[in-house]
Amino acid sequence: MMIDRRSVLAGAGAVALMGKAAQAAGPDGFRPGEVWNDTNGVAINAHGGGLLRHGGRWWWHGEHKTAGDAGNRAQVGVHAYSSADLVNWRDEGVALAVSDDLDSPIARDCILERPKVVYNPRTRKFVMWFHLELRGKGYGAAQAGVAVADRPQGPFRFLRAGRVNPGIWPANATAEDKAPDTKLAQDMPGGQMARDMTVFVDGDTAWHVYASEENATLQIARLTPDWTKHDGYYVRALPDGGNEAPALFKAKGRYYMFASGLTGWRPNPGRVYVADKVTGPWRSLGNPVRGSEVDQKTTFHSQSTFVLPLPPARPGGEPRFIFMADRWRPENAIDGRYVWLPVEWEGETPVLRWRDRWTLADGWKG
């Protein structure tokens, strides 16, 4: 399917009027929760997304939403933007388009969520993973989809979709886990469910992290060297913890993960975990939000999607991290907003505080 720029701009029309007067925050900063415009004055449309650095620019890929309830399903695909400074974003068009072929797994009106793009230096390919639900099937399919491209802006070529590691037990599964009445065992022949997800690259290895077992347990699955398939090794993480919206990063020699509870589109108290290895075991550090009772109960009315690592502000300084989250508006999906905040620290615990406006220069000052 071909989508020209005119149709994409028309899809953004529901918030374009609001966006005309809005910017990310001015020339060099962020205003969490407000409408953020691209350099054409159109509201940025990249929800549930992630970022990567390539070719001297930042690349942001996210769900392209449309107006109303129908926008909670994929009517367009995955949108891409690029920026030199993380504030001023250039529209790079639709990176992965949904299909007009109703037999395609990514047929228009499917559910395509939380796309994450990584660059594989071995293959020199950009690899996109996403949570996929088949058209007209609600959230019953619980599949992971993958696509590849030669350029970060695409076009991405859809490869396949399905459940994860059929016929294979997790490396840390116990006899109790394998009991016939568990969701893990019931799904084992056809593959594990994969809903809210991210991809985390650790050195030469990429990991697919996703909510599984009817969202009760996170699973962490290793990808093959080309990062387009699972290699059969995976573990259960935080079993029966009811976590979704995982967002991983590595700091201070350890692994950290933001996540949320299970309340549908409604926000809930954030969670943060720590581990010495990607595969765990993971330990809770509680709610990372510092602020009012409402802030703590709703994670600033948002849900985590990604953590962006940045280089130190000066040589020899500490690496910096941006917490990225979405304010979902399911009644009018296109009006979802972005909440980006600097990750601060209390000892070894990452914490989040609200900022009406902040810049890369002042975000990590005391």
UniProtKB/TrEMBL annotation:
Which GO terms are recorded in the biological process aspect for this UniProt protein?
carbohydrate metabolic process
Say if the entry is tagged with keyword tRNA-binding.
no
Query: Sorted alphabetically, which keywords does the UniProt record give?
Result: Glycosidase, Hydrolase, Signal
CDD domains, per database record: GH43_CtGH43-like (cd18825)
> Any signal peptide, and if so, which residues?
1-24
In Gene Ontology terms, what is one molecular function of this protein? hydrolase activity, hydrolyzing O-glycosyl compounds
Q: Does the keyword Iron-sulfur apply?
A: no
Q: Which family is this sequence assigned to? A: Belongs to the glycosyl hydrolase 43 family.
| Record's protein name | Family 43 glycosylhydrolase
What species was this sequence derived from? Answer: Sphingomonas yabuuchiae
